[in-house]
Amino acid sequence: MVEVPSPPGAPTLESLGLTRDRPLVIVDVDEVLGLFMKGFGAFVAERGYELRFERFALFQNLFRPGATEHLDIAEGRRLFDEFFRTGCGEIEPAPGAVEALRKLRPRAELLILSNAPADAERLRGEWLKRHGLPRALILSSGPKGPITAGLVAQTRAKSAFIDDLLPNLDSVAEHSPRTATFQHVADLRLRPLAPRSDRHPRIDDWAELGEAIEASIS
């Protein structure tokens, strides 16, 4: 839910255990594969704060109980960083995500591209393993178009990209125009607040989304 400049270039597919000859499907984690807001909300509640669903944002939804003004952004970022350092391995998978990716696995190379602090790498990797999700993981920051373009340029097949944030989807459409883009918002409370775009099909049911992804890379 937070955009922070993207690293230059991209790792090789081979270094991630992926091949160049199969379609490449790149998937976000928070509010796509995992219920980030639900997990983060429980995390901040244990520390005496509230996460409200008033807008499609993160730090502006953090409050002290009974307060009308949201937390200072610096305090919100401190909680965000602490969550990824200690608590991000506890989020629940998005409904249907595990099953959908399991069906896609025989057809495509699956790569997880997550905007998260570097401190989250171990917990995020363990979370993927525990739920039977793809193990190829890149932690990035900022708009995802440049790194996606670097990855897609290495494959000879079709590609698809799934994220909840329009800036990331627009970035991929700009830098990797041959990649199919899909928007997915996992949390039911966020869906009415999330902006849409005609550029990217919005599919919030993972069973339907999995079928759409498969069709786009066939």
Describe the 3D structure.
The longest helix has 14 residues, at 73-86. The strands form two sheets. Strands 5-4-1-6-7 form a five-stranded parallel β-sheet, sandwiched between helices. Helices cover 33% and strands 13% of the residues. Helix 3 (97-104) packs parallel to helix 7 (206-217) and helix 5 (145-152) packs across helix 6 (166-175). The protein has helices at residues 36-45, 73-86, 97-104, 121-130, 145-152, 166-175, 206-217, and strands at 24-27, 50-51, 62-63, 109-115, 137-140, 159-163, 180-183. Mean pLDDT is 94; it is low at 1-7.
Assembly of the depicted chains: single chain
How is the main sheet built? 5 strands, parallel
Query: If helices are DSSP runs of H or I spanning 4 or more residues, what is the number of helices?
Result: 7
Low-confidence stretches: 1-7
Trace the largest sheet across and list its strands: 5-4-1-6-7
Order of helices and strands: EHEEHHEHEHEHEH
Instruction: Give me the count of strands.
Output: 7
- Averaging pLDDT over every residue, what do you get? 94
Strand content: 5-15%
Proportion in helices: 25-40%
Using only C-alpha atoms, the radius of gyration works out to: 17 Å
Category by helix and strand content: alpha/beta
Distance between the termini: 30 Å
Shape: globular
